[in-house]
């Protein structure tokens, strides 16, 4: 910002009731300056007013709480330390999918910031009501894979990232944000981090921990994760399309949005995509801001010291002007021991497939971070999920998020489960237990085959792809959706009764049925899933004779369905257009316009036309 703009900087720290008088004073002073430039300086004054309004109003209107207020930052940190979470993670399956630290911050401040506007092939202004995504304006999504955080020389030279990762046994790393200095390197230095008893509390411990063998990023581990991410992302490219970025995808350089939070945590300084660096703890090369990349989204991968029972974490840390994630992160906490690392690398990488896809889908927007903060092309808020009351057959009641009528997920799930009675179908429920991530995962008892549930699911189903389409940022290629069987055709009661009732579902008959009626379901349920699954009647996958015909429950059948089957194909998506997302009204438009400029006088003059609508120098 030019040298005659310093007064504007004071605005962001003023109480709300003093903002407007201060802005008016700055404006009056600038309008009174003649200095031989008259009209030109009037335009500068108007542009300055616009900038001041942005600094003063946008942080308060776009967030539930002011990100520039240190007291608010202290309260947010205290809330995060006190929030309930599972003390023990599942012993089997993928383990808990930990909500990223930055996602928890965004949740408390309100709608995530849209600080990284991009250009697209066609105008995406919010006034284009009814805009849709289709095969003509979308292309397969292009990922730029950033693995810088896996290398010691990239992280140790960054003051924010130094000592966050383990590259040698018995080194010290930061858990949370400790205030004290790094402990002694002596072997007898006390390590207070008891992984076995602390569980997920380790992430908020705010102390120094000693690197164990399982924490160390070895060359074998690095090669494995790079291969696993590369393979999984290649699979996802075949399923998801987006409006392509025109030219280079470029991020913005700044101190970040949550300035008071970073000040409180002693994470100051200007960085390329600062919120990702400071909040997601990933290395972001300056070239992603200065030069950009030929991609639609950036995926940064890290190998932080594992949290017991947690195998991964994924989320977004930067969005464009319409809310589409443009930078997402994957924290891989699954490790292999030294004996496993010598096995076939390709085979090991395939074992990471569901973990990588699960967390990357979180980054693309599978979760409340995007479902609860998406807008239509006309600027109105889009309603994707709501909390609805559910009642079990034993009288137990709960309030669970459901995909609501009008969403593509609602329609896709209704078709899959064969619930043809609209009066009984209130939408697909999300996970109700455990509380960690309950609003960002499929319910295991209903969607056990899908990899966005907890457990052993491996399919990226058409229902999951439909949930991405509901955000208005993605177009699914359903020909690459992966098939589920669990619960298929079981009807409304199967979904709505929370498994207490298992109605008769659809069946398959024919000569091949005895051979392919062999779906296996594990009966060993880990402790943290008992509350979700204990009411489910176990399924017996065996063929039987029904009126002289070999018969198999559809969800047990592993063969190919007959060509004349009436069941909904798993690679058929919901009917109708995919409505594109937009920005959140005039205030977002003002923010988008301001963020396109670097603050020079000539560039700020273009904002005068916005300010003229608010005030004039001739007053």
Describe the structure.
The structure is a single chain. The longest helix has 24 residues, at 38-61. The strands form eight sheets. The chain has a five-stranded mixed beta sheet. The protein has a three-stranded antiparallel beta sheet with strand order 3-7-16, covered by helices on one side. A three-stranded antiparallel beta sheet has the order 17-19-18, with no helix packed on it. It has three domains: 6-62 and 585-612, no CATH class; 72-153 and 217-364, Elastase, domain 1, CATH 3.10.170.20; 385-579, Alpha-Beta Complex (Leishmanolysin, domain 2). The protein contains 23 helices and 21 strands. With 619 residues, the chain is of the alpha+beta class. It starts with 5 loop residues before the first helix and ends in a 7-residue tail after the last helix. The protein is globular, with a radius of gyration of 26 Å. α2 (16-32) runs antiparallel to α3, α8 packs across α14 and α16 runs antiparallel to α17.
Helix-strand layout with pairing:
Elements: H1 6-9, H2 16-32, H3 38-61, H4 70-82, E1 96-97, H5 101-109, E2 132-133, E3 139-140, E4 143-146, H6 152-155, E5 172-175, H7 195-198, E6 207-210, H8 219-237, E7 240-242, E8 253-254, H9 259-264, E9 271-272, H10 274-280, H11 287-290, E10 297-302, E11 310-319, E12 325-332, H12 338-341, H13 345-350, H14 353-364, H15 368-371, E13 375-376, E14 385-391, E15 397-403, H16 408-417, H17 462-469, E16 475-476, H18 492-496, E17 507-509, H19 513-516, H20 530-533, E18 544-546, E19 549-553, E20 578-579, E21 581-582, H21 586-595, H22 601-605, H23 608-612
Parallel strand pairs: 1-11, 4-10, 10-12
Antiparallel strand pairs: 2-20, 3-7, 5-6, 7-16, 8-9, 11-12, 13-21, 14-15, 17-19, 18-19
